[in-house]
Amino acid sequence: MTEAVRQQRVVQGDPLRKSVVKLFTVTRKPNHYEPWSHGYQHASGGSGCIIDGKRILTNAHVVTNAVFIQALKNGDVKKYVARVEHVSHDEELAVLTVDDPTFFEDTSPVQWGGLPVRQDRVHVYGYPIGGNELSITAGVISRVEVISYTHSRRWLLALQTDAAINPGNSGGPVFSDGKLAGVAFQSHERTTAQNTGYVVPMPVIEHFRREIAGGKVLGVPSLGVFWQKIESEALREHARLKPKQSGVLISRVMFAGSAHGHIREGDVLLSVGGTRIEQDGTIVLRGEDRVDFSHVVSQCRVGETLACEILRNGKRLKLKVSMKGPSTLVPLPQPDRVPTYFVFAGLMFVPLTSEYLGSWDWKDVDIRFQHLYRDGLQSPKRREVVIVSHVLAHAENQGYHDIRGAIVARVNGKEIREMKDVVKAVKKPLGKLHVIEFDQSLYTFGSHVALRAANVAQATKEVLATYGVTKERSEDLEGL
After folding, report:
1. Residue 11: pLDDT band by 50, 70, 90 thresholds?
2. How high is the pLDDT of residue 6?
3. For the purposes of burial, counting CB atoms within 10 Å of the CB of 244, is it exposed (0-12), middle (13-18) or buried (19 or more)?
4. From residue 214, how far is each of 57, 72, 301, 357 by CA, in Å?
5. For the chain, what are the domain ranges?
6. Which 3 state secondary structure label does DSSP give 217?
């Protein structure tokens, strides 16, 4: 902070305080084990800042699954009802508004800043645990790099600072020279790392603002490739790189991803968006700062095209790749995702999702499910993993009550690629029976379930009544 700015705050009583908001939320998470119901109501909170257009900027996780939100201006005592206008879980950002116009009286929207450099001094404003009044902590920017955002598992640009960021600071503004430099969003999880907090920086915020201006938040695209560094001279020779060329070797292309049909395994990715990629996968951000090349990809919007240059069999090729979202087999976290389910004679069919796995203690999750979560890829034969999570006991499904997390391979002889296939397959039994087959490589309770087709409808009706299930299927499966 410059001396002039400091002196101005002393005289005017720190005008930045008029931009800061405390948020109170009541949340109710979906129950992904019993997907027809919800979990308990929970009170929490966070921080935010007022931006142009009479809106409030905060973190996505602060308002995820919120059923009621209140906003409190700094120095005020009245809480105002707020509502979510836009949310981007990928970028850990959300925009709220307050319908009562008196809330914004005597407030000041933040001034948009830029991307700080290392050793720039910053101030974190917010309402962390340990007190009720506004907290202001100071520190410096120690790193500017791409990291994994805990909320979304997306790798995006972030600022690292030694300024204290604690629970309750989430969503609060981080200022540099009186202008917004970012939004506080997470601390380092390891006990060995001290004074390490992270900030969503302005390039990510600006991407979110462009999404809002475009009328729809589509999230952050992914190139959809796995790659490796080309540091070995022998590997450079194998990739047919010339002395002044640099890039990364494509080791896998994700089915249905952005690069699918454009980039091939064995290609060398030389540049993205006109920016040269070095042998370690980094690009020049500015000066001596280098970050992962995925930063260039993340600055695109879904639906836009990205210029890519590759080396294929020693020949340079220029491509235009249409940007899509991630195409992982187990979907990346979408914390407000409404659960998909289908109850069939007590068998609970659900897709394997991050949220379903999150309903368990991670150490209790089958190691093979952990593998699918981390490394599973879509294919023409499997767009998502469909499982029978458990069985709601009934006389018609006796003998199968111990089934837990069985991966469905076929239903009535039909290959199951996604949940919709299950609903369609049960319309045509195999003679007098419905037969469900499981993937034996990931299943320990047997490989087959057989149900009498004539009894299924009545059994399903009785199961729904016994367990208080309102519908046999989620809304997204209705009409199939």
Report:
1. very low
2. 55
3. exposed
4. 17, 29, 10, 33
5. 16-104, 121-213, 225-322, 342-477
6. coil
